[in-house]
Amino acid sequence: MNPVSSYSSANLIVATAVNRNLNSMLGALQRLSTGQRINRGSDDPAALIAANMIKSQIATREALQRSTLRVSGLVAVADSGLAEVSRLTSEIRGNLLTAASSTTTDAERAALQLEIDGAIDAIDRVGESTYNGSLVFSGKTVNVSYRPDYYAWDRLHLPEINSETLGDEAAVLADLRSGGQYDLESGDLASALQTLDAVQSRTIYARAEYRVFDRYSHDSIYESLYDQEIQLTSIYSEIMDADYGSETSELTRSAILAHSSLVAYKSLVAVAQTQASLFDALFDLNRR
């Protein structure tokens, strides 16, 4: 066998082993430093595609959870406003019943009417409540989307709170104001109470609707989104995260092999140098 050819082949094999082991060691170091098993597309293209899809799904659910929190704030503001309307209508009812007593003087009725007017004004102010720059009690039905399926909508009705619209077909809350057809001076207590009953019934129904929506739509979907995010995050972690135990073992193994390859390469270089010296000596002898 030609010694030069043999040396060249051995040199190529050892150099390849050195490069392979050094690259393996550097790869393990990179995975340990970043904590990720996949740091570039060539590491695992299929897994990287799957991880990116899962990451997109996680981001979607995080955005939907933030949306549910905004909806929760809207429901809380609306429920608080309706609770205040219920309290004010109860005060109006008490004033109506007090005014109906034969022992109540005209001056007291006038004072009670002022209180009724003030309560109605307060109800109108509740109707002007806003959330995130929008009117809460707009009388409209809003579409609330917080599901992964963007075409799935939950509808939340926002009743209009206004003394000119609250009431029944016969009368509205504004008719109980001073000068209205059912104020205390009119003496028509039955009609005033009937109008007030309609307002309270509407308020109670709206509060019940909000509570049902908050409990069975909002809360359940929020918990579902949270659970899905945890599961997807776990799957993403399994795909992307490096196993520190195995990577540490790989680093140690690669370092040992790289060191052995370098020692072999140095030995091969030393042998080559010895052979070259022998060839030079033989050449000198032949020339003499």
UniProtKB/TrEMBL annotation:
Q: Which GO terms describe its cellular component?
A: bacterial-type flagellum
Q: Which domain of life is it from?
A: Bacteria
**InterPro entries (UniProt xref):** Flagellin (IPR001492), Flagellin_N (IPR001029)
The UniProt keywords, alphabetically, are:
Cell projection, Cilium, Flagellum
One GO molecular function term?
structural molecule activity
**Which residues does the UniProt record annotate as the domain Flagellin N-terminal?**
9-140
Cross-referenced Pfam families, in alphabetical order? Flagellin_N
Q: What is this protein called?
A: Hag flagellin
